[in-house]
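[User] I wish I could look at a protein chain and see how it folds. I have put the entry right below:
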Amino acid sequence: MARRTPPFRDTAYVRRTGQAANRYPSRLRRAAMACAAGCTVLATGCLSPLEIRVTETDPGGWGSPATVAYDNRDTLSERTLYVTARLRNNFGYDRLTLAVTTTTPDGYKWRDTVSIRAFDGVPEAGLFFDREQLVRTRTTFARPGRYLFTFSPVMPGGSIEGVAAVGIDIR
């Protein structure tokens, strides 16, 4: 007995009924849609959330350390850390140099020095400008708990004018 091709591939079916042949059967289409939906859920579940923690400083003269806290629950994902600064139009330097001290839940500390470029050219018309600088890549917060990030200015003079806020951007 000759094997007959299914209706969705049979050109005689199209000629006989006058209807366009369904390219894929409904079961196959549903399975493909379910697979695509499952892949989308898995892909979005693997993305790490964006966390930005910022603390305000005195834009008239910032000189004391500023601290932000980050409560960590994810001990497996690799993160990228950026230092972000909100500068006013009256910031008088071309770079903002900061000492960033990270304190783990166990009390261990490490310090990074970061230099954030203030303006690439003439500032736009506006009062505040957000700038960021990469600090660390592929960082894993190994312990759950509260991590503290302390920002201290490392600039000439006692206090710095024009810094409205500093913080950490965890991606």
